[in-house]
Amino acid sequence: MQQDTPTFSPKRWGWFGLSPLIVFLSVYLLTSICAGDFYKMPITVAFTVASIYAVAITRGIKLEERIRQYSRGASDPNILLMIWIFVLAGAFATGAKSMGAIDATVNLILSLLPSSLLLPGLFIAACFISLSIGTSVGTVIALVPIALGLGESLGLSNAYVAAVVTGGAFFGDNLSFISDTTIAATRTQGCSMKDKFRANIAIVLPAAIIALVLYFVVGLELPAVRPSGEGSFLLTLPYLLVLVAAVAGMNVLGVLTLGIIACGAVGLGTGTLPAWDWIAALGSGITGMGELIIVTLMAGGVLELIRYNGGIDYLLRHLTRGISGKRGAELTIAILVSVANLCTANNTIAILTTGKVSREITKQYGLDPRKTASILDTFSCFVQGLIPYGAQLLLASKLAGVSPMDIVPNLYYPFIMGGCALLSILLRFPRRYSR
């Protein structure tokens, strides 16, 4: 019987175990910056280089075992869940567009709201939906196609309107009682969700208000736009069903499946989408997610080898040295979860990875566990909102047809949220929470 691959490398690298991440960032970011164009270096090529490098530097096991360990990361249940979401999201988005749901929804919104309120309205909608369903990915899937249609009518870039929705999506992902990040943060720190919510809202609500004001100011300069056609309620039904089902708490895979069926039923019923055209649209949408799926798989493999070679453990050991005082302890926790999220590209996994160490720091330095849980959730969402290889930005960029790096500069809310979170540590507020 073949033995399982060991959990950790028998010859661990220490800090050098992090080098695959450095290679990826160097190939993707530095090359793109030097070329002055983020489309010059495909992210798939950057991850391919990092993958080959990560396998090559792994020591103590044969090449076949290295590849098996890499594949173990790529086949992680969290990675595969994201892939199933991408597959269904591609089918739903393309099917809805083909049967006219996006155009009808955009025209309906334009007939109801003035141009000055469209950007604030999109941001509020993203905040509300993500708060209700607890997932930023689901919010991006539901709203980005509509936002792109509105942005086109207003003369805004796809990257900008995708950033409005993605930023708002992180608001609810950070606060929702059913968000996996909230569950992970509260369980690792041993506090209740409502107490963590109270600690969190004092940090992120001001950030959301500032972002909302910025979008309102931008909206004042937008030209008045009239609908290009009638907003058919029947054609908007697939999106309405998706939003209602998501807010009701249905699993995201179930929501997308419902949306796909609704698109087919409405398209066939109204005659806007013949059966074979609907099937072709579904196939086109699924295959269109191919690059995103490949990137997700390779990212999972690279990040698994980083963990396997001791890169994550090295961070946990060395970033916790030399802590001084409560402020220093909170800053250390913030840095720990931020760097872990940079390495794992998953805010929930980053919280789980650093949760035990953070709880020990909390006990040793007399920190409030509710504040610690808030720091873990807030800083992990902050970093997740800025990395071009995170699921949210990859999906938003795919739907918008732009580079992830084009979206990052327009993400007002994550930047402001990160600033507010840092101030809350430096100024150590709020000091008390209502029970």
From TrEMBL:
InterPro entries found in the cross-reference section: Na/H_Antiport_NhaC-like_C, NhaC_Na-H+_Antiporter
Domain of life where this protein originates: Bacteria
Keywords per UniProt: Antiport, Cell membrane, Membrane, Transmembrane, Transmembrane helix, Transport
Entry keyword Transferase: no
Segments passing through the bilayer: 12-33, 39-58, 79-102, 122-148, 197-218, 238-266, 278-299, 331-352, 373-391, 411-429
Pfam families the record matches: Na_H_antiporter
Family that this chain belongs to: Belongs to the NhaC Na(+)/H(+) (TC 2.A.35) antiporter family.
Protein name according to UniProt: Sodium:proton antiporter
